[in-house]
Design brief:
The complex is a heterodimer of chains A (266) and B (249). Chain A is mostly helical. Chain A is 85% helix and 0% strand. Chain A has one domain. Chain A contains eight helices and no strands. Chain A is elongated, with a radius of gyration of 21 Å. Chain B is an all-alpha fold. The chains are: A mainly alpha (266), B mainly alpha (249). At the A-B interface, helix 2, helix 3 and helix 8 of A face helix 2, helix 3 and helix 8 of B.
Chain lengths: 266, 249
């Protein structure tokens, strides 16, 4: 009985302890990276590497989602006799939600897992201890550039996700379902403002920074065993995906207002 | 190392061998334990992800519909799009990231520490002993996760509609469920079985192949299992939706 009562308190306490540890780690690592000579260059290198590794998975994940969105939206809109609204609706949903959300999820799965696994393997091989032993800042040298790299890479991949997803929606709507090409192309930007695009990009920077910190922290504090490396990668991916979706909801509420649509962008 | 271009050939071949291993009778006790483990470890992730996704979809739908005075119709979009596409897709993604990575890293760690070779030396088949129980666990967990995803997503939409947007409770439930038919639930469960199979095959394949050795190999296997699992989940969802909704519903 006592254990049952203790469980919620212990879970809440360990959640906030883990959150505090990630926030503190993020601050130490990023400040350390920015203070290191060549820290920004290392971060840019990490961003390029992440972008190169994640580009194909982003295309393969987000393209079909755009196509599914177009297919189901057309079915729904036909019920109201408003098929003409397909392109603006699909493109607005892609830019506001689908692209930033799923680009971040793919970065978490591909880039985040590899960040966690790399750092965990370095911990296991005592490479991080060696850096600390030489008086160097292992957080700033190793983790910081990866966190900043994820923050830089996420908006680039979001732009790629927007293009791919719109192409997927176009392919399904025009080539498969027979929506007129000119109608799709002429109306696709009607539901969108430049602010939507900027907010979408800003959201992915926050997602990238957050998931970079979660994954780097998971790898940095992993167990020193072979299975610990896999466990770190696994835990990092799951936590990052949950973070992206919870953060997306919180940001949506902040952007669109608590009463939904009170600050509608259009 | 197997070249990436051969993956489209190697994966179906491995899927066939793994399915044949299931028919040869994997150990019952291990299979039951793995089924319960996979379900218990994946469900919390699926529920949390889909609850917030339902909440996010509701806020987004409300923002789009409020200017037309149709705030109360937000539930329709969440129910329709969520149950048909978004929640099954996210359930598959959660299964890939939680279970797929775990299976791949477990099997790869066993390969790195030569436990798999030891089994082979004893004349035992790792496909029957290790792969088949994990594949069955994923196939059983798939529909359970999809169903849980649908329920938690709809509850997320309901909670946000009622408490954040101020829509009447019964009106929100009515719009949420108005676009959901029994056929959608059946399709969701079929998708769950397929997605579970896909995630299981990819994870077992990535864990079974001889990759780079050591701890880095374990991390890389987990990474590949998650990403390739997610890509195949998306492609499978699109294929199934086009096949089922395009032709029959």
């Amino acid at each position: 009985m006592l254990a049952l009562l203790r469980w919620p308190g212990a879970t809440t306490f360990s959640f906030f302890a883990a959150l505090g540890r990630v926030v503190a780690f993020f601050a130490q690592a990023t400040v350390g990276a920015l203070r290191e000579r060549g820290g920004l260059a290392a971060a840019s290198q990490q961003a390029l590497s992440l972008t190169a590794r994640c580009a194909l998975p982003v295309v393969l994940v987000v393209g079909p989602i755009g196509a599914m969105l177009a297919m189901q939206s057309l079915t729904l809109l036909r019920g109201f006799g408003t098929e003409r609204q397909l392109a603006p609706l699909a493109v607005a949903v892609i830019v506001r939600e689908i692209a930033p959300g799923f680009a971040a999820v793919v970065v978490a799965m591909q880039g985040g897992a590899s960040i966690a696994a790399e750092l965990a393997a370095m911990r296991l091989a005592e490479e991080l201890d060696a850096l600390d032993g030489m008086g160097l800042d292992s957080r700033g040298l190793v983790a910081g550039p990866r966190i900043l790299g994820a923050a830089f890479a996420a908006p680039i991949l979001n732009a790629l996700a927007i293009v791919t997803s719109v192409a997927g929606a176009y392919g399904m709507a025009v080539l498969v379902l027979g929506v007129p090409r000119t109608l799709f192309l002429e109306t696709m930007l009607n539901g969108l403002t430049p602010l939507d695009v900027w907010l979408s990009e800003a959201k992915t920077v926050i997602f990238g920074m957050g998931l970079g910190a979660i994954c780097a922290s998971a790898g940095f504090h992993s167990e020193r065993t072979t299975t610990g490396v896999g466990r770190a990668a696994n835990g990092a991916v799951v936590t990052s995906v949950v973070f992206v979706l919870v953060c997306n909801y919180v940001l949506n509420t902040a952007i669109f207002g608590l009463s939904g649509g009170a600050v509608a962008l259009s | 190392m197997i070249p990436q271009v051969l993956l489209p050939l190697m994966l179906p071949a491995f899927a066939l061998r793994a399915t044949a291993a299931i028919l040869r009778g994997p150990p019952l006790k291990d299979t039951v334990l793995l089924v319960s483990r996979v379900i218990l470890r994946s469900l919390p992730v699926v529920v949390i992800i889909c609850f917030f996704c339902g909440a996010m979809l509701t806020v987004q739908a409300a923002a789009s519909l409020a200017p037309f005075g149709a705030l109360r119709m937000s539930g329709l979009i969440v129910g329709f799009g969520g149950v048909r596409e978004v929640f099954p897709l996210l359930a598959g993604g959660a299964l890939a990231s939680r279970t797929g990575a775990e299976i791949a890293s477990q099997l790869q760690a066993m390969r790195v520490t030569r436990q798999v070779e030891a089994l082979e030396m004893m004349g035992l088949d790792p496909l029957v002993l290790l792969v088949a129980p994990r594949l069955i666990a994923c196939v059983v967990a798939g529909p359970v996760c999809v169903f849980a995803a649908m329920v938690s997503g709809l509850v997320g939409g309901q909670v946000i509609g009622q408490f954040q947007l101020g829509i009447d409770r019964s009106a929100m439930w009515a719009t949420l469920l108005s676009a959901v038919g029994v056929g959608d639930l059946v399709v969701g469960l079929i998708k769950g079985v397929v997605l579970g199979f896909v995630v299981g095959v990819v994870a077992c394949y990535e864990g079974s192949i001889v990759a780079e050795g050591g701890a880095r190999g374990v991390g890389a296997a987990a990474n590949r299992a998650v990403v390739r699992g997610m890509v195949l989940v998306c492609l499978s969802c699109l294929g199934l939706s086009a096949l089922i909704y395009g032709r029959f519903l």
